[in-house]
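Morning run. Coffee first, then this:
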Amino acid sequence: MIRGLELPYICSMEQLLARIDGLKKEITAYPDGDAEAFRIMYLGSKGLVKEIMGEMKNVAPENKKAAGQLLNEFKVFAESKYDELKQLSQKRQQDNGSEADLTLPGDSVPLGTRHPISLVRNKVVSIFQRLGFAVAEGPEIEDDWHNFTALNLPENHPARDMQDTFYISNPVKGGTDWLLRTHTSSVQVREMEKGKLPIRIICPGRVYRNETISARAHCFFHQLEGLYIAENVSFADLKQTLYFFVQEMFGSTVKIRFRPSYFPFTEPSAEMDISCLICNGEGCSVCKRTGWVEILGCGMVHPHVLDNCGIDSNKYTGFAFGMGIERITMLKYQIKDLRLFSENDVRFLKQFTGAV
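And here it is:
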């Protein structure tokens, strides 16, 4: 490093020139290092440049003009060396990536969007809320009673084989069998057990089934189920409710049909089909050349279910329905692979920016 300076009394131009030449050699040989250290040593308030400039008072009057020019040139020389060191230091930091260049423009942040499942869920909820349905939610880890038994599926009932269940633990003698819920019907049971009638609710949520993952099935998916219980509720009320939903969701030109079906918790039971949105009912691989696609199951609540939940089945009736949100989403946006919803591929997800 450069040593400190103890200037002798300057009384001639020769001495001043000699001292400036010596300092210029030191500055020229200054190693490429910390520019700030150079600034403090030479250009700071107590630096060598200011110190030697202060010796103007010791120069003979007839030499002051020439000495002033020499000192100014020396100051410019020292400042140019400082600028050079500063540029080298900045370049080295950028090359090493150790410090961000705050003069560069910031990176643009891409605009996010809601997941297509969330978009459709919110749309379906909005439609039924306009009909007076309230949203009800429940736990994803359920007991056997709320998931099966209360819904007219007692132990060893063959309909239990229709749902491959994820059991969390085997029941201890006299204990409870815990599982991941296979449908959101368990939320309906919990609401019926409260005994606050009439009931008009929809139950959206994630459910789990032990199925092989493919383009048409997954081990977890989303359902939305509805329940309406009051006096004198009829199947006609169910049909008109679902007619309204389909027209609001898919448009007034979509055709609708009901087919008889079987569910242990409803009687009578039905499945509802709509005309295929991909081929407009003409027949394609998605609708298996039939022109129709099943979107939900429904029916009148079975009297045994009402009795299990403490509701007088002789006084009250009700209807229930359930749909897979993934299926509704696939139909609405013409998506053919269920796995795309859970792969977090940004190229797929950003297609739904601004979608409704």
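Strands lie at 134-135, 141-143, 167-169, 178-180, 199-208, 220-230, 256-263, 266-275, 292-301, 317-324. Good start to the day.
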